[in-house]
């Protein structure tokens, strides 16, 4: 009896493979179904998508149709009159390309530098304005990212006007942004250079700072008590639709003078004022009393002239030591319980008031409670 033939053996000479599949063109990237292509695009980095887009017209059209959404929802821009720097990255995705997804490019009058984890790449500018090149690249990125999660803008040597021009030239304004941060602003006009190019309907959180590097609250209070900071006029900012639409507004590092009635519509607000009065505090308390949602208000102040009558209007405080993170001074606290088991918590330190509306389960059991 003849031995069976082992078809996996290299010694077999009679092995034949017969295809049972009908003749069909070989599968390629260009013939992939749209849902498969979309899945592929979700797995590659933004830089690689751009490279793939430049290989042929077919792939460019496919990518422009699918509009893959890279996981880069954070944008940082800083600039002066002579240069702009932009970074695209995602949450906890800070490693530079190709080690990670982060893209960091600097645009100058004479050259462009692409910072990479392996080796920086540099290109000389020939007969092109660096603002035009930036605007074109920025607009290309926004084509794949219709809503920006976090947008941070930092001015260097009055650079906000340069940034404004680049945003305007991108052709993508008003930008849809959820969290906007403007740092190193010097006056109301700096903010007005940017806000008109941001969609107020999508904006949830706005932070405006007159510092480049944010100081600690303790250092800020020390400078505030010495009267170092000038008062900003924000009357034109208050006329914008953003003032009405944004729920979370943070200007704690800029001294302004606005009435408490002008900030009571915010859900979460942080401001610094030259002077507060006890009547302001009573008005805020009444606003929190009738609020139908949780609220938070932090107010730094330089002066509280009628502080002596505070206990007469609010009652005796509950004294806590080092209760708050924003001041090294002892804290006086009041707790007013509403009928719905929510509590208005009020903290006062040397130069700061905090109002916080929260459920009773988050209030220490040992505090002295006032019933409303």
UniProtKB/TrEMBL annotation:
GO terms for biological process: innate immune response. Transmembrane segments: none annotated. Signal peptide: none annotated. CDD domains: F-box_CeFBXA-like. Residues 26-65 form the F-box domain. This is F-box domain-containing protein. It comes from Caenorhabditis brenneri (Nematode worm).
